[in-house]
Amino acid sequence: MVQIRSFLFIFLCLLGYGGLAKGVSGLAVNWGLQSTHPLPPDIVVRLLKDNGFNKVKLFEADPGALRALGRSGIQVMVGIPNDMLASLASAVGNAEAWVQQNVSNYISSHGTDIRSVAIGNEPFLQDYKDQFVNTIFPALENIQAALIKAGLGKQVKATIPLNADVYRTDSGLPSGGYFRPELQNLMMNIIKFLQDNGGFLTINIYPFLSLQADPNFPKEYAFFNNTSSPLVDGSVVYTNVYDANFDTLISALEKNGFGRMPVVVGEVGWPTDGDPSANIDNAKRFTQALVDRIVQGQGSPRRRTPPDVYIFSLVDEDHKSTLPGNFERHWGIFKYDGSIKYPLDMGNGRAIVPAKGVKYLAKQWCVMSPSAGVSDPNTLAQSITYACENGDCTSLGYGSSCGNLDAQSNASYAFNSYFQTMNQSKDACSFNNLAVITTVDPSKPPCLFEIMIDIRKQKASPSVYRSSAAKIEGIFAALILGIVGSFI
Ligand SMILES: *[C@@H]1O[C@H](CO)[C@@H](O)[C@H](O)[C@H]1NC(C)=O
Ligand SMILES: *[C@@H]1O[C@H](CO)[C@@H](O)[C@H](O)[C@H]1NC(C)=O
Ligand SMILES: *[C@@H]1O[C@H](CO)[C@@H](O)[C@H](O)[C@H]1NC(C)=O
Ligand SMILES: *[C@@H]1O[C@H](CO)[C@@H](O)[C@H](O)[C@H]1NC(C)=O
Ligand SMILES: *[C@@H]1O[C@H](CO)[C@@H](O)[C@H](O)[C@H]1NC(C)=O
Q: Could you say which residues form the signal peptide (predicted)?
């Protein structure tokens, strides 16, 4: 035993050294799939690896993503959407079926390194009006029981991603943190259960939303590198809302005797469009400083050990609900097609790299016909509304990248978005003869008229990218898992 352990230790050190030598800093990211034309999963997996992401969080057990992640060396947190909670809470058999199909199956048949299951997503959001308050805990209990029954009780941890509004502080100081009184008992049950089963708590923190929702929010405090308006909390000085928010949770946990409860940041990021505060400059400033902190292993004042931090998010998603705001479709550090939005140092001087092997539809756009200038304004307005309902016009609003277009270009943008969403079908560029197809790029930077990904071409010639080096890493990872599982 002892010999095996020291062998393992040396082996792990060697691996760790190899990782460092390559500059693998261990970044984590959310991979959302709410796009009309999602990138092929194998391209995304290569994008993750190329940029040093070794952990990924999925919002659902998407078969394509889970298969592509198999033997990739990337650890996976797989999510369960809120609308499945009732069924999972109602019978342990349902949870067993879910774990069998969506966890065990991928681990055993595809070598997917699933490490945790995120049960629900921000179930206590006040907008949900207590819908999930009665199902979240029994769903957690049932999934945990199912994981244990499947023999995965040690390997796969349970968690619940929470919105930061589960806790409060009346003084405005992190040290005053406490759980919302109506959730106090439930939170205690959840936290105790997670702790007893080796799970962890997940918290989503959004400095952007703090800034966006409150015109009086001190802008610099949303970022990491200006100390001009700090918050003084006893002996601790907070220079950014991210640390202050995180520590409010830590102090709420400490107050309830759970000061050692592991906490993971499930979502944090900055959108690039769809709001005056959502732009490339702010996103770059926030995200670069965030990545630097992660790479340096920086924790918060109350908890020096750095948490795992899942950046939100990997790519833009043009099919997300815009209820929270137009920015909701622009959280990606990459665009919808895996191209780079802004330069980022991903750690140790390694520059961010774009997705490779992406195939596009033809270089053509749908624009308002020049001869349609004096048409019936009602028809035009209706056409734009229709195009925007089915396409994506979230860049057209005030303060957004296409917010300064004249009326003609504005209509063109809407028409083109619809046309691209509809795979450039000829019928999708008619609008009662108000629109025509052009091969001249109508983009007016910073406003870009995009061309959509060609899903069909992409499927016809699937890219085979996984290098043999990656395969070997995957085998080592599996070996270590096996050894650790049986001897430690
Ligand atoms: C997971 O498993 C269940 C079986 O309980 C199935 O109905 C469901 O569609 C699966 N997929 C996802 C994405 O949850
Ligand atoms: C820091 O923030 C303050 C307050 O917003 C601002 O006046 C100051 O110019 C900022 N400092 C730098 C170096 O950006
Ligand atoms: C913070 O960093 C950004 C670049 O990441 C830079 O543009 C900005 O001036 C910095 N602000 C301060 C106060 O250092
Ligand atoms: C452009 O279109 C959007 C979406 O229909 C609309 O909200 C906006 O007012 C339009 N702007 C102009 C300048 O026509
Ligand atoms: C676009 O083409 C892809 C691949 O053929 C297809 O799956 C998708 O449904 C099409 N979208 C529309 C809106 O027709």
A: 1-23
pTM equals 0.89
Could you give the count of Cα atoms lying within 13 Å of 456 in the half-sphere of its Cβ?
A: 5
Residue with tokens 């968690």: 159
What pLDDT score was predicted for residue 1?
Answer: 35
Q: Residue 194 corresponds to which tokens in the numbers above? A: 């997670």
Verify whether residue 473 is a known catalytic residue. Answer: no
pLDDT of 22: 39
State the pLDDT at residue 475: 32
Pick the ligand that lies closest to the CA of residue 459. Answer: 5
Structure confidence by residue, pLDDT tens digits, 101-160: 999 999 999 999 999 999 999 999 998 999 999 999 999 999 999 999 999 999 999 999
pLDDT at position 376, please? 76
Length of the chain: 488
pLDDT at position 460 is 74
Q: Give tens-digit pLDDT for 332-353.
A: 999 999 999 999 999 989 999 9
Tell how far the Cα of 223 is from the centroid of ligand 2, in angstroms: 11
All structural domains of the chain, each given as residue ranges with its CATH number in brackets, are: 2-329 (3.20.20.80), 365-487 (no CATH)
Distance between CA atoms of residues 26 and 11, nearest Å: 18
Contact in structure between 308 and 161 (CB atoms under 8 Å): no
Would you call 122 a catalytic residue per the annotation? Answer: yes
Ligand with an atom nearest the CA of residue 84? 1
The residue whose CA has the least distance to atom 5 of ligand 5 is 456
Catalytic residue among 60, 96, 141, 267: 267
Give residue 400 CA to ligand 2 midpoint distance, Å: 24
Question: Is 420 a pocket residue for ligand 3 (Cβ < 6 Å)?
Answer: no
Choose which residue among 37, 360, 361, 423 to substitute to test ligand 5 binding: the one with the highest number of ligand atoms within 8 A of its C-beta: 423
Is the CB of residue 388 below 6 angstroms from any atom belonging to ligand 4?
A: yes
* pLDDT, position 372: 78
State the DSSP H helix or E strand holding residue 88, giving kind and residue range, or none if neither.
Answer: helix 85-90
Query: From the CA of 285, how far away is ligand 3's center (Å)?
Result: 7
Residue 309, beta-bridge partner list: 265
Q: Going by C-beta distance under 8 Å and a sequence separation of 6 or more, which residues neighbour residue 255? A: 177, 178
Among all ligands shown, which has an atom nearest to the Cα of 106? 1
Q: Which of the residues in the chain have pLDDT under 70?
A: 1-25, 373-375, 461-488
pLDDT value of residue 477: 35
User: What is d(CA 315, CA 330) in angstroms, rounded to the nearest whole number?
Assistant: 8
